[in-house]
Amino acid sequence: MNETTQEILKDHCPPMEKTNPFLLSRQNKYYTIDAGVVTSDPMLIGVLQAHKSCVSVIAWQVLSAGSSKSSLLLATGCSDGSVKIWLGNIEGLNQCASGEVPFALVAVVATDLSSPVSSISLAIPAQSQHEVSLAIGRVSGSLEIWIWNASSNKIEIFSAWHAHDQVVTGLQWAMDGYCLFSCSQDNSARCWISHENHLEEIFMHSNFPELRESADLSELSDRCYGLTLAPGEQMIAVVRSLDLNLLNQMYQVRTQKAVVEFIWIGGQFVGIPLDRSIDICSSQSTDLSSSNLMWWGSNILWSLKKYENVEKRLVIWDVVAVLQELKKSAPAFLETLVHSWVSVLLSGDPQCVSIDAPSRSMHDMMPYVSTRKLHLLNIMCRKVMVSIHTHHGPGAENGNEETTDFWSTLLVRSETELRERLVGFTFAAVLKRTAYLFNGTSTENCWFPVGVAQMDSWVTMNYDGQVHDQLQSIRSKIKDLGSRIDGYSDVESCPYCSSPVHFESPDVAICGERHTLPRCRASMILCSVVQPLWHCVCCGGTVNKLLPESFFTMQASTMHDEGSLDLSAASVPLCPFCGILLQRSMPAFLLSTSPA
């Protein structure tokens, strides 16, 4: 499985349910059979002579440090106990010739310890972008924290202590360097919080209702082999080896060698400041205390705020899983929490949006919201809030139709804005591409917009006061071009019976012989029946033509400004309405019979 395939699977595969510690597979109807985004084969660009002995571990991190150009940090640990930090130019990596590696040595850890390095983790604290935190785990069980200052190019030790009784097998910074997780072959996983001039251990507990029936893996496992942090940083996953003497010799020993334990960490203190704006009138759950709810809310809001940055890949399955569980155990708290987040998301002013606010006022705010925020809003509404009232948990009020209508209306309004933004983006791209052709500019590597005729039909259907004036204006320019637009065609036929297909919906179509056909959510054209399609596991949409990444980085509705539009060819399969990585579905006859 290549790295791109792993990223696509990671975006959509939720954590495994812990009803059985030996159950390591999960049913999922979507499978990735080809990445569709790899444009060239891997190429060796050079060899870096980092140490004189065996390099045991490496770690990467991107360093911005206030510069417009980001750099790449590389930390290398050696079996002789030494650690080095290298600084590389990202643009140089893409342009360098074979044998010329653009990495420069910037720091060396000076220590008398000769214990081999077993794990490394890098972090750039949010409070200081010029300082890099380097965590070093050793075979002896000791942990060290070093601080490298990118401005002064100096590295100093922050703290060192004996953390584990055996080899440190995993290290992971979390919450922008506020806390550090470690695991060891002594079968322990621990959390460390920065306090004054050293790190202090805090007890890890999940306090999550769904984990009550989980097995106690400490009685079944004999060591930890590694850990990783979930994308939304609400949980960690620890790989544990199983004690063969405690397994069934007939069945379990033959098939089970290790398990992955998911530990929820969002309901405890993890170093970040507590958000005291969250209103908790009383404990609304028999399983979660008011303090637990406060930490869950604070950590979830912190995570969602981080995802407003378009450079962070939109992978939030752990955040969604937490919210879906809270809707069962504390629905009133969830309603308050998400409502508070939406208020700030849309306007920056918590008083501007409320359940009682007119839907039209919310619609007026949408054009000024970034595309990434609209994607976040769609995911939260669709996966959490719209379904919350179909399953009433403890304390939920039956028949709260007003609240249900609020979230449903919010979902519709946001998708309408994204639809208009998509149409305007395509129209602007057509105008810019036409200008390129008129001026003799090459369009070889430019994205080719399709579905213009279908989008024009959609605008016509929604013209009477339902689309923004900007879209109406740019549409008039498209109408003037007419047939001069490359690929402009409103004539579509059914691939099964060849009967004409009229445009009635941007998502589906029905031909004259009553065949139901899917439309591409990105272009509105009929999807091909011979080529593999992309699917969104959030909204269920189908995508046949991909969009360039510039659509997903729009800060507001700028559909009228075709001059600054980036027409780089599409490369990453992202859902235009959810922003997450798309997947391909595999035909049933191609599925493997292997349970793995």
From TrEMBL:
Please give the biological process terms from Gene Ontology that the record holds.
transcription initiation at RNA polymerase III promoter
Q: Which InterPro entries match?
A: GTF3C4 (IPR044230), TFIIIC_Znf (IPR024764), WD40/YVTN_repeat-like_dom_sf (IPR015943), WD40_repeat_dom_sf (IPR036322), WD40_rpt (IPR001680)
Positions of WD repeats: 161-192
Query: What Pfam families does this protein's entry cite?
Result: WD40, zf-TFIIIC
UniProt-recorded Gene Ontology molecular function terms? histone acetyltransferase activity
Q: Where in the numbering of this chain does the Transcription factor IIIC putative zinc-finger domain appear?
A: 485-579
* Superkingdom: Eukaryota
Q: Which SMART domains match?
A: WD40
Could you tell me which PROSITE patterns the record lists for this protein? WD_REPEATS_2
- Mind telling me which GO cellular component terms the entry cites? transcription factor TFIIIC complex
Alphabetically sorted, this entry's keywords are: WD repeat
Task: Please identify the protein, giving its name as recorded.
Answer: Transcription factor IIIC putative zinc-finger domain-containing protein
Query: Can you name the source organism?
Result: Zea mays
Where is the organism placed in the taxonomic lineage, from the top?
Eukaryota, Viridiplantae, Streptophyta, Embryophyta, Tracheophyta
